[in-house]
Amino acid sequence: MNAPVDRMVGALLLPHPYVLFLGDTTVSGYAKTAFGLRDWAPDKCVGELRLAGATVTTGLDQLSAAEAYARGARALLIGVANPGGVIPANWRASLIEALEAGLDLVAGLHMRLADIPELAETASRLGRRLIDVRVPPSKIPVGSGRKRIGKRLLTVGTDCALGKKYTALALARAFKDRGVDVDFRATGQTGIMISGGGMPMDAVVSDFEAGAAELLSPDADPEHWDVIEGQGAITHPSYAAVSLGLLHGSQPDVFVVCHEPGRTEMLGTAGYKLTSVGEIIELTTLLGRRTNPAIRCAGLSFNTSALEDAEAAELMARESRRLCLPVADPIRGGPAFDALVASCLA
Description:
346 residues, five-stranded parallel β-sheet, disordered N terminus
């Protein structure tokens, strides 16, 4: 599969293998970067590094910075996407230790590594690199709304951190397996780290969100598909702006709704109830018609990792009948996922 945005910003050449840094994280949803690298780029991961108090683990070997370097790691990659994208003060001693052990630092947070004086000084003294991937290109235009050639699929969701990236990666891989000309288009830090390029949509000034999405998925062959990683949720009280800009700019012909059964509140905003999948389908169709009148929902992707096999299968079958759309878990695969892929390509 081609690097997502070679025509725009070029492929990122990141030093790897990585040791995945989890800090003192206690909420698994905030460690989605680490989980994404573990699941989609396992050959680039030698282990994890956790601080005291952490309760989240990738299941990889727990290593010190020196042990990771001895195993071949060449960078410590911050695998946490916490609220606000900050690097807390209590992480910094471990990051300095990693630099001293011979590792570069890779991050995709809003807070830049080089803006932290003690990291910048240590890296400069030791000749190490501080690499931030959440840096959009300069001179992004305002969105034009011009209809582009080619086909586009966007994953959308009922909340953050529930499977939009995994669904997009799985669909892109399935398209390719069926002989379809396809590119995965990364819009977040983890996708960019996995694929080597992309557009960090949540780091783009809001007036230019739609234009950034247009750059991410330019004109292509009429039969070419861009499978675009979604961000946030169009009804999320914190992140709806990036979701709407991405929807208008990507102009999807097809969208897939991602959902985690059993989740009742939106991540990071206690008291805000999750929007139903039916309302997300309705709103996405209504708002998406602004730039693509032919937009349609091809089905739903459920994150059923908390359910047993039989329970997950029964739930997805029941929801498929209720919504009259394919419902599948891309990680489980099987006939339900094949039906979702077929619906996307129909």
